[in-house]
């Protein structure tokens, strides 16, 4: 059953899209066939620090599920955070960020990305909220075509002490084989080729 959505368009707020639903638009059942999640808030001008600061009240000290959306090809990075404002700024400063996402930002430019919020989450403490938020992130990841995501894992988890699965490793290797997806790969390949030429000339 499709739930009704109510759109509220605020004047002088073209940069932020608000969409409110009376209930969640997804089912907790993994077998359900639902539409792709729709953001409730979208931040657009990510290169403008003043713009980001002006939207602070929308994301500061608020947990939830977010994505970075590539406007050029529709690819996304899905994530979760106990403080969306802190997490947004970590990504923008390339701290604790996703390598594939950062390579894409370097390739396409930050002006071609939007920061989307799908759902707020009240983070109480690590003992009670951490797993719930991680499970919620996993559920959102599964709502999208995984081949169109910058995420390396289909199941969200803490990276501490984690060993990547074979499928995750293959996805990372496939991304890095394309020089345009890795900002340092081009220079590394030049170095390797130079070394090979030196070896053959000796």
What key phrases describe this protein's structure?
disordered C terminus; 7 helices; 6 strands; two-stranded antiparallel ribbon; alpha+beta; GIY-YIG endonuclease; single chain; globular; 202 residues; 4-stranded antiparallel beta sheet; disordered N terminus
Structure description:
By secondary structure, this protein is an alpha+beta fold. The chain has one domain (5-162): GIY-YIG endonuclease (3-Layer(aba) Sandwich), CATH 3.40.1440.10. It contains seven helices and six strands; from the N terminus they run E-E-E-H-H-E-E-H-H-E-H-H-H. The protein has a four-stranded antiparallel β-sheet with strand order 3-6-4-5, sandwiched between helices. The protein has a two-stranded antiparallel sheet with strand order 1-2. The radius of gyration is 19 Å and the shape is globular.
What layout of secondary structure does this protein have?
Elements: E1 5-8, E2 18-21, E3 41-43, H1 49-54, H2 56-59, E4 63-70, E5 76-81, H3 84-92, H4 99-108, E6 113-121, H5 126-141, H6 166-177, H7 185-201
Antiparallel strand pairs: 1-2, 3-6, 4-5, 4-6
Approximate shape: globular
Helix % is 25-40%
**Individual helix count:** 7
Distance between the termini: 72 Å
Element order, helices and strands?
A: EEEHHEEHHEHHH
Fourth-level CATH superfamily: GIY-YIG endonuclease
The CATH architecture designation is: 3-Layer(aba) Sandwich
Uncertain ranges: 1-33, 158-164, 197-202
Radius of gyration: 19 Å
SS-derived structural category: alpha+beta
Residues in β-strands, percent? 15-25%
Number of strands: 6
Largest sheet: 4 strands, antiparallel
Averaging pLDDT over every residue, what do you get? 76
Strand order of the largest sheet: 3-6-4-5
Number of domains: 1
Named CATH topology:
GIY-YIG endonuclease
